Amino acid sequence: MIKKITLVLFLFISALISTAQTTLTVAENFIIKTPDGEPVNLFNILDGGQYVVIDFFNVTCGPCQTYAPDVQMSFETFGSNQQEVFFMGISYSGNNAMLIEWDQTYGITMPTISGTEGGGYNVHINYGIQTVPTIVLIAPNKDILGQLHIPAYVPETSVIDSMLIAHGLIPAITGNSNLTINSGEFSFYPNPVVGQVQISVQLHPGKDYRLEIYSMSGHLMVKKNLQGIGLVKEDLNIDNLEQGLYLATLIENNRIVGRKKLNVIR
Question: Which domains does the chain have, with CATH numbers?
Fold first, then answer.
């Protein structure tokens, strides 16, 4: 309830101000420092072949506090900076002591940078960030591929993960392009599909599941809660989807545990 009230209030305030985010299409380099003095050089990370996700936030921002655990969960899902995606959080304000408290309070283990002592303020200004939280995805070739920000998007784990998946990035928890969760299947039949498709999935007791289907640009097109235990098969009507490729994600307790491409033909 508190989370929903906070979000409603923030959306109301956001409606009164500009929500335009960075107009950059190519990333600008920066060298900043974590509270323990570890330097973070953006271009060094990109030149090493990793994609970079930046969580632009502020330590005093209510919605940033609400969704900090969601960003952390995506950080873990994509390999905790040990795979093809590197996550970092950059605060608009706050000193190193405040960032250390932030990390401890919200269980953050990805690199975070304070606004005053770490250099975060200058990065916010240089990137033209006007609304927080804002999530920015940068490719190794320095192109800015996408961004998520309130009120256009709510930065929940599933939304962040789906943006990355839409650009071909693979969650470390799956390890490959096959959809498996705890040895259970996740599949569509038929695929390609014309109008109605059957989803087959292994569900486990005591957990909440839902299916979300996104366009290749990252927009949520279908959302369906899944119920049952064991092998569950359900028919899904997708008449509202235009011809093209879509990315379906299976979410268990608000964490993506499977993914599958769905080809819709008309």
Answer: 2-166 (3.40.30.10), 180-264 (2.60.40.1930)
